[in-house]
Amino acid sequence: MTKPIVSVKDFSLTIGDKEIVKELNFEILPGEVFAFLGSNGSGKTSTIRSLLGIYQPTTGTLHVNGKNLSPETASNVGYLPEERGLYTRSKVLDTMIYFGELKGMTREAARDFSTAFLERVELSDKANTKIKKLSGGQQQKIQLGVAIMGNPKLLILDEPTKGLDPVNRKLLLDIVDELQQQGTAVIYITHLMEEVERLAHRLLILKDGVARAYGTVAEVKKEFKSKSIEDIFVQIYKEKSHVLSAEVKNV
Amino acid sequence: MIAIPLLIGIVFALTFIGNQSSASRIEELSKDLKNVAIVDNSGLINKDVVTANKLSISPADQTETLREQVQNGKKDSLIVFPADLKTGGTYQVYLSSNDLTKTSTVSALADNILRTSLYLPLGSAEIIALAQNGASATITIYEDGKESAGINGYIAPGLFIILFYIIFAFSISYMLTSISEEKENRSMEMVLTYVKPRTLIIGKLLAVSLVSLTQVAFFTILAIVALLIMQQTGNALALPFGIDLAKIVLDPVTIFFGLAFLVVGFLMYAGFMTATAAAAPSTKEANSFSSVFFIGAFIPFYFVVMIATDPNNPITNFITYFPLTSPVVNLIRNTVDNLGLVGSIVSLAVMTGFMLLSLWIAIRAFKLGALEFNQTIKLSKLFKK
Fold it and tell me: Taking a C-beta distance cutoff of 8 angstroms, is the pair B203, B192 a contact?
């Protein structure tokens, strides 16, 4: 039996007086694309931050390769956060090397990787350009490059295709495909269900911090008796409005 | 890193060269002024002084004609010393054009003629120079029956006040801008994935400390080089209040406390700036909150006389221990030596306590607020478990 790369057990998170995540359980296997879905404020980003060791869980465990992750041990994890950005006054290559070194790479290795990546995404002529002079899409490619530096075992992508044109979106998805084929596990957060249908092996739909659907894509479709993930997502999120309207009627 | 101090040095040098060049140009022009008429109704102007300037005194009844000639551009200028100059203290200068250099030159000429005429009856050039420039006093102060260094004892510890403001202006606010910019451009979350908040803050503090050290070293070397050049060129400094650079006292105790107050004060302010940047959601809001610290650093100057002369005043005591004012107040009191050894130790201990508190608040605020992009972290939240 393959050992999971990510194992989350009975995870709950309370920040201040607010219970963000409740009793969450899931596993991710190596080489698997795991779609982590939910509307804004459902607890996805908080779960990821807890997985990375930025937030401490209130209860439960979040293990990567059998251990709690902390900034010191996160070098084999690539993360493209939703709230992302780069040092706009720095040059492209300098920025990539800086993040590579933060991830524990040597300067030479970070430079070699960055040069190869910039060539791959057709930005090698921008290596010495300041980030602020790049377009939004070009900056997004650099951010992806930073996330996949050092061939991570686990890659977390939070809405990676947001703001990308179709050509660059395809390029990004191809890179994700390649990494996944090399054995990298990918946590893929998106609101675009066609990307889930195309990439995901398994998925979890989070609503108000609670897992409402979890399993392989086929399992979830079977459970909800639906042919589309989008329909399942809408169905789960409509539940609340049904409950609310019932409550209103009772009042 | 040293670009700003270097720029200041260049600006000072350019200002000095510019002023020297303007002064010599005015002097040159003043020698060339021939078409200037002078009317003296006061009786204070010495004819020989006017003649020495290759000019002459015109009769009083020609005043109106000469003024019209200036108005029509036939004469460059007219200087009229009125009969009531002694009591009124003003004289008139008429000029044919709106040339700033000419205005300065003719005014300087008129002033020079008047002053020289007034001083001339004093006799020798030495007496005139003494009357014009005054004399400097050599002050001897006795303390406990022994001769004390007086103001020369204040110079070395006083330099730490200047160094504190240099560091405050160039380095401490860097902590604020660096963190708030990382928050605003959203690179913070990517950084925090691989670096612990505590490590990040300590790293930034170390970097800022090294930058500050470099700036301090730069200014010190600049000052030493300037002094050496002055000594080599024989340009002795005429310093006021009896300051004599050769008699500066280097007391290890006051220098130690000056350095300690500087370092602890720097770290305390850096901690407060970090906390502010981490707690505020944007650079704009962080800057507006940080104005409190700027006020705290500069407010002691409104009380400087009281701090120096009335150490037992309750206000002096309050601002000695109040965190935001304590670095500068203690540096001033260390300079004028009214803190005493025990007072210095107590102050340093209190400031160290506040410094540790500010760094704790900084790390706490950073943990809570570094990834909070939409709202300000409340003070009460910082102290909650």
Answer: no
Sheet holding B92-95, edge to edge: B57-58, B36-40, B77-81, B92-95
Query: 3-class DSSP state for residue A31?
Result: coil
pLDDT bracket for residue A243 (50, 70, 90): very low
Contacts of A103 in chain B (CB under 8 A): 194
Least trusted range by pLDDT, from A52-61, A209-218, B52-61, B221-230: B221-230
Both structure tokens of B83: 């009969």
Higher pLDDT, B375 or B199: B199
pTM above 0.90, yes or no: no
Strand order in the sheet with A202-207: A77-80, A154-158, A185-189, A33-38, A202-207, A210-216
CATH class belonging to A6-250: alpha beta
Sorting pLDDT into bands at 50, 70 and 90, what band is A244? very low
Cβ–Cβ below 8 Å for A77 and B193:
yes
- Beta-carbon contacts of B35 under 8 Å, excluding residues fewer than 6 positions away, are B75, B76, B77
Look over chain A and give the mean of its residue pLDDT values, rounded to a whole number: 87
DSSP conformation letters of A42-81: SSHHHHHHHHTTSS--SEEEEEETTEE--GGGGGGEEEE-
Q: Find out whether B280 and B271 touch, Cβ atoms under 8 Å.
A: no
List of domains in chain B? 21-133 (3.40.190), 151-382 (no CATH)
Q: Count interface pairs A-B at CB distance under 8 A.
A: 53
Chain A residue whose CA is closest to B198: A71
The 8-class DSSP code of residue B170 comes to: I
Most confident range (mean pLDDT) of B80-84, B117-121, B313-317, B350-354 is B350-354
Residues with Cβ within 8 Å of residue A138, at least 6 apart in sequence: A123, A126
